[in-house]
Amino acid sequence: MDLDYSNITLSILDSAGQILPAVKSILQIARDMELAVSTGHLPVYESLKLAREAQKIGFSRLIFCHPLSHSISASLKEIEAMADYGAFIELAALNAFSPGSSLRLRKKLSTG
Fold first, then answer.
1. Number of domain units in the chain
2. Would 75 be classed as within a structural domain?
């Protein structure tokens, strides 16, 4: 049986744009148990809100996943903001060596 996941969306925010209470609980549990949490394929604006919340509660193991990938496409300023919030920045080799990626990377570094 083929499953169609194309219409499924996932958000860590409620309808008012605030982080869901369950997500806050996950961050607190991860902080208390010294676990890492990854942003995965969240949109950059959600990752930034998550990083802000993580910093607020003293959680220091947030990983901003492959920000240079086509699916995330974070700007240099957004990557810097994530780092400023204390997130680790994951740079995937696939994004560094795939066709056109070095051009995208140079463009991001030169234009921010």
1. 1
2. yes
Range of the domain at 49: 21-111
Residue 64 CB neighbours (<10 A) = 27
* 10-34 tens-digit pLDDT: 899 999 999 999 999 999 999 999 9
Distance, in Å, from the CA atom of 112 to the CA atom of 110, rounded to the nearest integer, reads 6
Report DSSP letters for 33-67, one per residue: TT--EE-TT--HHHHHHHHHHHHHHT---EEE--T
Is 25 within a domain? yes
Q: Could you read off the pLDDT of 72-90 as tens digits, one per residue?
A: 889 889 999 999 999 999 9
